[in-house]
Amino acid sequence: METKGIVIKAQDYKENDKLLWIYTEKLGKVTAIAKGAKKSKNKSFSITLPLCYSDYLLFKGKSLYRLSEGKIINSFQGLLNNLEKLTYSSYLCELIDISTEDGEKNPYLFKEFLTALYLLDTDAIDYELLIRAFELKVLKATGYEIDFNNCVFCKKKINSSNYISLSYYGGVCEECPKEHGVYLSRASFNALRFLNSATLDKVYRVNLNEEMKEELFKINSFIISSNYVRKPKSLEMLKFIKE
Q: Which residues have CB under 8 Å from 81's CB, separation 6+?
């Protein structure tokens, strides 16, 4: 099968081989063996590096795919030379890994992931807000989208809110009880709503102070940590960079 894909994780395997986790356009997340790829002179070495975006030729085995060949589209290796960008890109990969099942196709999420990496590889955007926007795209793609348009209890349309239910994932109107959730400023609520609906390249339109960014971080991280197979370890590193 020929498919475009991004290496989200790689580790040494038997002898000179590598074990890869590749998020692909046509097959979803797959695990593949790259024979001899540990050797720098091997033809597969460069296409098995983390973050590498390539055209891959994969063959299905009994339990794993086998990487036959590939052609680099973008190595994204520039992200590895900047600690902040490296940490954010590692988090993107980890989020894809924990939120998707093997073989679960999602062209929408693949496109958003790729777009996020391209934007992260520039200097023209607030990286933290890009990450928040991408988290919202992941939640939407995997069935945990936050409802910013209707009260999650009475279903009445809301223009804004100062409270988000963390049990039902959405805004709460003035009349309904504020339980099992978190208060936030209306500006933060509106920012979340915009980031949820806008394309990632429109993130630059949002300008938030540190307190508002912290509100967005707490809400997204709680929902992510509560619903996927494990809590992303990179979240702590992200918090460290932020501080």
A: none
Please count the CA atoms within 13 angstroms of the CA of 6 that sit on its side-chain side: 26
170, 148 Cβ separation under 8 angstroms: yes
For residues 1-12, one letter each, b for 16 or more C-beta atoms within 10 angstroms of the residue's C-beta and e for the rest, the string is: eebbbbbbbbee
Rounded distance between C-alpha atoms, residue 174 and residue 185, angstroms: 14
Between the CA of residue 3 and those of 67, 97, 144, 163, 206, what are the distances in Å? 11, 18, 28, 43, 35
Q: Decide the pairing of beta strands 65-74 and 28-34.
A: parallel
Q: Side-chain half-sphere of 40: how many Cα atoms within 13 Å?
A: 0
Q: Is 117 helix (H, G, I), strand (E, B) or coil?
A: helix
Rounded-to-integer distance, Cα 79 and Cα 118, Å? 10
| pTM value surpassing 0.90 | yes
**Residue 107, amino acid:** P
Residue 63 pLDDT grade (very low, low, confident, very high; cuts 50, 70, 90): confident
95 backbone dihedrals φ, ψ, rounded to 5°:
-65, -40
